């Protein structure tokens, strides 16, 4: 896969509202799937699909512990990108 294809894959992964919510939930640290699935409006299978896309885009990493899979942000620079997007969206709303 080329560099540009990797960049597109990353941007597409970040652009989906559910995946953005997942990333924001993981901003404070690692969470198991059971915690990610709390207080959300989507099913467990839907959550799993979005987590797979985030893993494939190298946004999150997974760690298995017993029966649970724990997810965390792979590189904290992702949160910097999200922060910049939030700042830019505030500028355009002014």
Automatic annotation (TrEMBL):
GO molecular function (one)? DNA-binding transcription factor activity
Query: Is Transcription among the key words of this record?
Result: yes
Q: Does this entry carry the keyword Transcription?
A: yes
Keywords per UniProt: DNA-binding, Transcription, Transcription regulation
List residues of the HTH arsR-type domain.
1-93
> Superkingdom of the source?
Bacteria
* Cited SMART domains: HTH_ARSR
Mind telling me which Gene3D superfamilies this protein's record contains?
Winged helix-like DNA-binding domain superfamily/Winged helix DNA-binding domain
InterPro entries assigned to the protein according to its UniProt record, in alphabetical order: ArsR-like_HTH, HTH_ArsR_DNA-bd_dom, HTH_MetalResp_TranReg, WH-like_DNA-bd_sf, WH_DNA-bd_sf
Q: Which NCBIfam families does the entry link to?
A: HTH_metalloreg
What PANTHER family does its record include?
A: ARSENICAL RESISTANCE OPERON REPRESSOR, TRANSCRIPTIONAL REGULATOR, ARSR FAMILY
**The protein's name in its UniProt record:** Cadmium resistance transcriptional regulatory protein CadC
Q: Which organism is it from?
A: Gottschalkia purinilytica (Clostridium purinilyticum)
